[in-house]
Amino acid sequence: MLEFTAPLFLALQQTTGLNFSPFFDEYDLGRLMTGVQTSLLLILCVLAVSLVVGLLGAAAQRSRFWVLRFLVATYIAVFRNTPPVVQLLFFYFGLGAFTPQVDMGGWYEPMISSFGWAVIALGIFGGSYNVEIFRAGIEAVPKATSEATEALAFSPMQTFVHVTMPLALRFSLPALASNLISLAKTTSIAYVIAVPEMTYALSGVWNDRLNVGEMMTLLFVYYIAVVAIISVIMGQLEKRLSVPGLGK
Amino acid sequence: MKTMMAMITTVAIAAGSSFAPTSLRAQENNAETLSAVMERGVLRIGVLGAFKPWAFRAQDGTLQGIEVDLAKRVAESLGVEAELVEVTSANRIQFLEQKRIDLIIGGMYDTASRREVVGIIEPGYWASGPSLMAREGAIESWDDVAGKPICAKQGVIYNQLIETDFGARLMAFAGNAEGKEALRSGKCVAWFYDDSSIAADLATGDWEGFEMPVDALFVNPWAAAVPIAEKDGAFGKILSGLIYGWHEDGTLIGLQEEYDLQSTAWLANMHDSFAYDRTFLAD
Amino acid sequence: MTNAVSTTRTRSTVPILLGAALLLASLAIAYLATSHIAKGPDDSPLKVLGRWIPFILEGFTLNILMSVLAMILATVSGIGLGFLQISNAVIIRQPARFVTRVFRNSPWLVILFAIMLMVPFEITLPHFGTVMIPGWVKATIGFTLPVMANIAELLRGAVASIPTGQWESAESLAFSRMQTMRHVILPQCIRRMLPGWMNWFALLTLMTPIAAILGVNEALGNTQAAMESAGSSPDLLIPFYLFLMSIFFIFIYPVSVWTKRLERRFAAT
Fold it and tell me: What is the pTM of this model?
């Protein structure tokens, strides 16, 4: 890749002074590639964890046991009303101090890496929003639907799994899309626990090369692209799953 | 998308060009500071605020430390009062250019680019370079870091060295506190930072079971600085002489011991090379 | 039907129960974290925390100051930007939408980095000479931009939600576009925007600790500095971070509860 881009971007630097070092310097290219890969993987994992947590939470909220409902309500209240950066530091440094170390052949490393903690912490943080979104989706399912399933002799569990949830998911999609986008952007704070995602990678480059403006531009373009991709996927999903006669 | 890229690039170029530092330096005669200080009866010295044990706030709120001590010695030699002004590494040079302070004694590396903007006083009064702090026995030489996670601080100029020259896996944190915390809780095998700072941490007693197992990769002197026009004027020459004297008479080595810092080869060498041979007086 | 009743009941009692439970939980965790310490009584993490609480709270005032100032700036500029977005002139509307999109789609941390690193730390004004811009002021600007873009979007959405019939009837009463906006549309928009606006205030406040990454001495920065000064013992981490989370919680939770109540009331009408 470098042999194509290097002449172009070196010329750009000579003529305009714009220093896009990752496109002609091998070390910086390496950092950029690690950044992109780590960031995309982080976003994927965090979104997945947040969805699972959201679904479990929304199901637990409908439980007959008040303790379970109370626990979910507490979880939502805590994670939506405290700073996500502090949550991340709390998980990584606070809880991370109690996780076992693994022998790497002469030296030790923690069992859960900084990437792992970022997935856990941000997934749980994002999940607290998803629970509410799914709950709203469930509440939007018309009462008549469950009455109809009762007439068809569905058990409450069958009704929930086969009728309520599929409809609720569809109703949740627009709110879900905007939450997932905001969660994907929030993954940039994994920077504070040294996860080599995009923000971390490019800030490393501008610290060494002093090309803040150029790297910042790359960073903005990257996140705008990520947001665009997620909204396209969610839009497609919404279109494919739309039920005739329901919603707009 | 194309127009968006173009717009962003324009913004970036505009932002980049606003970077050019605006220097307020004016032509001035090279004895201005000294006469102003004598007239005022006060010498204003810029020192860092949270730079233990070189300059830091004590429990009673006063500034103390090695550099504070040196600053007071300069004022004493001139027979004036010392006014300590707390600066940061980001604003100390501007403060000097704007004449808010007369002198910087603030943990500043002597570099070629700084020599272009301020009057760096030779010789340096201290020196430091990148080293490692690790659990006792974990690391024996620089080669031991290959393939292992090493904690560091974001934005430190020499961070790249440990990856490119020694093959370590760098984990850079936003602040010193997080980086060292990560070392303590076993998230990396060593903390890569300035040996002066590591020596200071070890001296506090909070880091029992840790050591600085390797010598610094390179050593960079710390220099006092005056306004650039004064470097070769009376004020600059007085400071040069004072610092020379501190090396020669053991003042600096004495301060190093007083603050429980590990002794460094650099200070010892300076002391030896500046020592004036007075044996001819013997008879 | 029974389900609906029970959820309503839980929701209304949850705030009070939660507050008490959280307080108890943090105390219990702090106690557990400290109980196995063999050091002298003065060194117990809770005692250390007690000594540093004023310092951390001092930092927290800066979080509040930054979030309140940023909210004021963002509201004013966001409403301005929102109006530009719905302007009839393409040449105004398109750039306004572009600005909104850039700041809505970029992470807070990235915008903060951009402002902190690209705005000089001092500026020269014609009459005042050189003025230093402290880090927290730059951070405030960095926090303003994303909120501004989102308030602009809120306003656009609120205006769009007003039935077009109202515009037409105002026109038939010989109202100008400006007059219609001021006397008919805006008063209704403010009500519709209020819950969203408060949501953004809460989000903004919860984001202010990222300023610590860039050296602003707010609550998180002070908490980390305090832990380091206190000897950076690992036992301090859990109580200190829990305390930090609690002060944000105590400040923001009432805002969230109130926002929810407003949302429900507006949804009902």
Answer: 0.82
**Residue C223 structural domain:** 51-268
Give the integer Cα–Cα distance in Å for A86 and C248: 10
Provide residues of A within 8 Å CB-CB of chain B.
16-18, 27, 89, 93, 96-97, 101, 104, 107-110, 114, 191-194, 200, 203-204, 207-208, 212-214, 216-217, 220-221, 224
The reply to whether A186 falls in a domain is: yes
Summarised one tens digit per residue, pLDDT across range C227-262 is 887 877 788 888 999 999 999 999 999 999 999 888
* Closest alpha carbon to A85 in C18, C208, B258: C208
The encoded tokens of residue C28 equal 């219990």
Q: Among partner residues B4, B19, B181, which is closest to C232 by beta-carbon distance?
A: B181
CATH number, domain of A139, equals 1.10.3720.10
Contacts of B4 (CB under 8 A, 6+ apart): A224, C98
Q: Which helix (H) or strand (E) holds B172?
A: strand B169-173
- Closest CA–CA distance from residue B174 to any residue of chain C (Å): 6
Please report whether residue A195 resides in a domain.
yes
**Residue length of chain A:** 248
What is the CATH code for B32-127+220-281?
3.40.190.10
Query: What are the structural domain ranges in chain B?
Result: 32-127+220-281, 130-211
Tell me, yes or no, whether C100 lies in a domain: yes
B130-211: CATH architecture:
3-Layer(aba) Sandwich (3.40)
Domain total for chain A?
1
| E-state strands within A5-134 | 101-103, 108-110
ipTM rounded to 2 decimals = 0.89
Q: Which of residues 145-174 of C touch A (CB under 8 A)?
A: none
Burial B171-203 (b: 16+ CB within 10 A, else e): bbbbbbbbbbbbbbbbbbbbbbbbbbbbbbbbe
- Report the Cα C253 to chain-centroid distance in Å: 12
Number of domains chain C contains: 1
